[in-house]
Amino acid sequence: MRRLSTTFGPYLERDGVVYTSQRWHCLSLTRPVSVRVTASGPPGTELGLSFVPGSCLTTDSFDEAADSQLVTFDETAEFTVGDCLWRTFIRSKPDTVGEISITIELM
Prior knowledge:
The protein is an all-beta fold. Helix content is 0%, strand content 53%. The protein has one domain (2-106): Jelly Rolls, CATH 2.60.120. A five-stranded antiparallel beta sheet has the order 2-3-8-5-6, with no helix packed on it. A four-stranded antiparallel beta sheet has the order 1-9-4-7, with no helix packed on it.
């Protein structure tokens, strides 16, 4: 289990969705693995996980295990991620205030 601290801002708007990320957290995996992700924070906020293009060892970038994932806060999600370098980001509305807790558990 790995706990990640997170902060809000600056803001980036892409395709009508606002992303906030002052601190990126990376998780490097050497084999495909199932994960359980729990995140809590302000309502309407989501945690995103995306692989770094070109970082996958054997997982095809079009494979389901290399798909970006969104986890709605105050929910737990389980899915498989590929043997890639993964980064986390926060997606929320501007001026969102609150503490965030993220737990990523490898299963």
